[in-house]
Design goal:
Blueprint (H helix, E strand, L loop, with lengths): L4 E5 L9 H5 L4 E4 L2 E4 L3 E2 L3 H9 L5 E4 L6 E3 L2
Antiparallel strand pairs: 1-4, 1-5, 2-3, 5-6
Bound molecules: iron/sulfur cluster.
Protein name: Ferredoxin
GO molecular function: 3 iron, 4 sulfur cluster binding; electron transfer activity; iron ion binding
Organism: Catellatospora methionotrophica
């Protein structure tokens, strides 16, 4: 497993609830009322997977960039 995780947000799916930015403010911010990852690659951090798990429309995808394995949501 790679040392870092890849963070992606599907802005078409995002409904701008802000839950991710509230759960992981170091990793997500709302830009034009849609979530945007602040860093596409991050060191493993439970706040990132928590944010992906709490998104009501599953717009956040956390993957291992070396294997493509989905880490959250599961
Ligand atoms: S939790 Fe999901 S729907 Fe809400 S702002 Fe974040 S990505 Fe968008």
């Amino acid at each position: 497993m790679s040392g870092q995780w890849q963070v992606a947000v599907d802005r078409d799916r995002c409904i701008g609830s802000g839950l991710c930015a509230g759960t992981a403010p170091a990793h997500f911010a709302l830009v034009d009322k849609k979530s945007t990852p602040l860093h596409p690659l991050v060191d493993p951090d439970e706040a990132v997977t928590d944010a992906a798990d709490c998104c009501p429309v599953e717009a956040i995808l956390i993957t291992d960039p070396t294997t493509g394995t989905t880490l959250a949501p599961l």
